[in-house]
Recover the amino acids of this structure.
């Protein structure tokens, strides 16, 4: 099956995205920002639809919207009050905008399905290089800022006194998250970002006892899901995201059960 | 040598004065106990020391520039949610630099800190399964990772049983003997203050009383605080 170029592309992109989303996911889950990750993906949907409407690649539209809103919501977070409610409002507007842009763009409903549920088997090589570049940037920054981000994510109470430039660091983190969401949506679609960003990391936090081991578990779980999903989709002709969702949710629930039983 | 000097300090909350005209000083290698009823504004004073908020009156002066100040807050996030090992939790405070792994120097210092806080044996135990005393020592170790010149402890021994709280303070005292460290300690615990404090700042009735702690003779002072 690797003789098909679409399969090579899917494998390369899927592997990279699994690594990036799972690594970011560990910090997102530790910071208890899973809900915000979900909202970012809805904003990403609006962005991708906007991209189609403008005649850009959906990835750039998505990146544009998620980055802008990550910075905007970062400002909102400084105010803190009514955070949940304001995030919900933003999310509602985002989905509405997405529907509007899709209608305006006059594209077929298959474009919408691609955005919402992923389209990993219909990438072009230029898509692939965009994903490689963006994923590389996220991983590079994540590695460089590993120490302060680790402190901020796992012990915010002392980090705010110890870590320098906390506000800047938070903003950078939100932008990394926005980029990760935009890139991951290429594989699993904007509706199912959770399955690569949140589920592998949440399962990993049950197993790992150091941050590095949590990262390793999360990446392993994400890779199992993506590779398994690609194989099963290739054989069965059902959507990849369906299989990834099943595998990741399965890993998560088994992890919870095993850990609950071990207490 | 004086490390920190507070002159004529006043702090307001919601437009009314919590206290005014409070004077105190922190001397090097001393333990300054910060005493007072709940809600009197002790944590607020600490926040001003950490630069988290500003004074409404007076001044706080660090007598040397570039002092490393470590703060051990009273409350932590739920450590049960994703339990790290004690070592990993302590390591979180190595938070500067680009390199993801620890240097040899940092490894060695980490080992020393764990030994100094009696955590070597427990290094790989999960922090959520540690006892209250062990957990407080892990928080202390985490703060010591930064090699602080000044350590601020907010009710570190509250909720610990007698054995654990004395072990905590002994660990701290032993460390202080070997390193340059001045300590500000918020506490309600008469026994602890009586045994370990060098100086005190009692905040009461919107005023501050600062002095050198006279061991044995000053129980009435503590009794005032204990009554709450």
């Amino acid at each position: 099956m690797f003789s098909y170029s679409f399969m090579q592309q899917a494998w390369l992109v899927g592997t990279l995205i699994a690594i990036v989303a799972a690594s970011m996911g560990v910090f997102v889950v530790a910071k208890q920002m899973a809900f915000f990750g979900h909202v970012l993906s809805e904003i990403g949907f609006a962005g991708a639809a906007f991209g189609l409407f403008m005649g850009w690649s959906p990835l750039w539209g998505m990146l544009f919207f998620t980055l802008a809103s990550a910075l905007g919501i970062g400002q909102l977070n400084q105010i803190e009050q009514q955070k949940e409610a304001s995030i919900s409002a933003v999310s509602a507007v985002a989905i509405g905008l997405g529907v509007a842009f899709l209608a305006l763009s006059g594209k077929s409903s298959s474009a919408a399905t691609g955005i919402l549920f992923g389209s990993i088997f219909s990438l072009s090589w230029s898509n692939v290089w965009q994903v490689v570049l963006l994923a590389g940037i996220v991983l590079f920054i994540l590695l460089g800022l590993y120490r302060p981000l680790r402190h901020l994510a796992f012990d915010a109470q002392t980090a705010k006194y110890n870590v320098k430039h906390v506000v800047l660091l938070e903003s950078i983190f939100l932008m990394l998250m926005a980029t990760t969401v935009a890139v991951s949506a290429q594989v699993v679609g904007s509706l199912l970002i959770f399955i690569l960003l949140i589920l592998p990391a949440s399962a990993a936090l049950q197993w790992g006892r150091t941050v590095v081991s949590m990262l390793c578990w999360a990446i392993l779980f994400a890779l199992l899901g993506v590779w398994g999903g690609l194989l099963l989709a290739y054989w069965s002709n059902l959507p990849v995201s369906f299989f990834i969702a099943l595998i990741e949710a399965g890993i998560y629930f088994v992890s919870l059960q095993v850990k609950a039983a071990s207490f | 040598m004086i490390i920190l000097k507070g002159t004529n300090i006043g702090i307001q909350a919601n437009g009314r004065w919590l206290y005014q005209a409070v004077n105190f000083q922190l001397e090097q290698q001393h333990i300054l106990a910060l005493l007072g009823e709940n809600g009197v504004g002790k944590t607020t004073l600490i926040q001003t020391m950490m630069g988290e908020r500003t004074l409404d009156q007076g001044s706080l002066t660090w007598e040397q520039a570039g002092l490393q100040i470590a703060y051990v807050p009273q409350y932590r996030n739920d450590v049960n949610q994703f339990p790290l090992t004690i070592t990993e939790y302590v390591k979180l405070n190595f938070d500067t630099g680009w390199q993801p792994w620890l240097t040899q120097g940092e490894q060695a210092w980490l080992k020393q800190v764990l030994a100094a806080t009696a955590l070597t044996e427990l290094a790989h135990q999960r922090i959520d399964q540690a006892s209250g005393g062990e957990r407080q020592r892990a928080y202390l170790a985490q703060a010591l990772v930064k090699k602080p010149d000044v350590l601020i402890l907010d009710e570190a021994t509250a909720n610990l049983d007698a054995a654990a709280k004395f072990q905590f303070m002994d660990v701290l005292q032993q460390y202080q003997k070997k390193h340059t460290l001045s300590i500000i300690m918020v506490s309600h615990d008469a026994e602890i203050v009586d045994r370990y404090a060098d100086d005190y700042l009692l905040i009461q009735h919107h005023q501050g009383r600062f002095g050198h702690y006279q061991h044995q003779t000053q129980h009435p002072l503590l009794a005032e605080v204990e009554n709450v």
Q: What stands out?
A: The mean pLDDT of chain B is 88. Residues 1-67+149-173+180-227 of chain B form a domain with the Rossmann fold fold (CATH 3.40.50.300). DSSP finds seven helices and nine strands in chain B. The longest helix of chain B spans residues 162-178.
